[in-house]
Fold this protein.
Amino acid sequence: MAKYMLLIYGDEQRWENLSAQESAEIDAGHVAFQKRAGDRILASGQLEASSTATTLRAGDADSPAVTDGPFLETKEVLGGFYLLEAADLDEAVALSRELAEVRHQHSGVEIKPLVQHG
Amino acid sequence: MSDPRDADTDADALGVRAAVAAAHRAHWAGVLAATVRITRDLDTAEECVQDAYTQALRTWASSGIPDHPHAWLRTVAGNRARDLLRRESVWRRAMPLLVEEATATAPDPQDMDEPPAVADDTLRLIFTCCHPALSREARVALTLRLVCGLSTAEVARAFLVQESTMAARITRAKKKIAAARIPYRVPTAADLPERVSAVCDVVHLVFTTGSNAPVGEALIREDLVASAVGLARTLHRLLPVAEPAGLLALLLLIDARRATRTTEAGHPVLLEDQDRSWWDREMIAEGIDLLTQALRSGPPTRYAVQAAIAAVHAEALTFEATDWMEIVSLYDVLLRLWPSPVVELNRAVAVGMRDGPQAGLDALDRLAAEPALATYRYLSAARADFLRRLGAWPEAVTAYEEALLLTDNESERAFLTMRLAEVRRSRDA
């Protein structure tokens, strides 16, 4: 078995102004995904808006600078994630198809394998 | 004076080299695919198979060419792989291995000749190389390297990139297969149609790159054409469904014209100027047979319709006898199955052939606004040709000049330059 991070990206403005129908589709997608993936989901979460993010990075002196906002200022943001255990990429892809975010034009799911330490 | 026994030995050595080369062409993919199941790592498997072919050169020279070269190579590569695994077991524990079906077991040396196992192994290799999670470039490179057995240098030459660039591309793709755990298996029935399409796309791309080289000196790259036809044959043999049958039909029907598509100097010859008596009638017959099979086994695929268009050309005894009415209606079907600006362009050219150059120009002008075609070399070339047929010399000169700006293929440039000179002379006359 391998571990994959499913990163759900999308246009933050669009997510903040969802129609009732889109919102229902997204909810239904997550319910279907969680039902099908079951205990293969090791962790998951929905993230607050980028405006709530805080970033630390190397500052002028030795101590890192703390700044308001996300690491990368982009229109598409990370909105949520699943940490998933799956036999292989095909299984991770098949499960991800349940998510409505992969069918909406402005959003998508990135599947990234975790490094397997011997 | 030479010793006659030396001549015999030379002949034997030549025979062995030829036998190994033939085994390389015929069995590389099957031997590699079986060895990957033992090593579960593409690099190690490649090394073992390479070693097996090297050993074949030596062993076959002393003890004769085996009755079943394929089984011999599989056994030697497999033994080499098991040796390596024993020695490197500690190191291997740290690397990600290819994922197989839970039920799969490495084949026993005894049943290595069993055809279904061989077929499955080869298909596994093809589907892994053409997995949609790899970039299209990577799929093509991996397929040529691992399935067709081309060296990295040969693959690099085919796509006119530096060998180091191609080596890096192949290494990256293999690393992704291992790290992201792209499985080494034949897809499930539910995924099969989509995955077969992805494989056909790679084979078709190899063929079109080979038969209309976008850059370089030659128009036709025979190495790529041969690889593509070989792959399509393998695919059709192993997967008797409609799409590979249509694809193989298409490749054969186009490749049947290969001898007449260029002059001895390598310049392109237009369809209307090709000497049809040199078209390969055997290939055409096989292509039409396959096309009939493909159309009988289900709704038409994109490749079957393209093959049907090629078949109309193949069956016309002269250019003038071409059934353009039929070709235009086949393009209409193709546009519904596979809408693309390039198909629109080909349809417009066919309309011009059916209704005359002015109708062709009108159809092309409607496409000129299409961004994907704005800088497409064949749009300007097609306009230039219709303008030439109309005798609109100044406009034809401009169109040929434009077409010349857009192509990097030397033999196409030579052809367009010749046409440009012709229309300039007519304009100035």
In short: The mean pLDDT of chain A is 94.
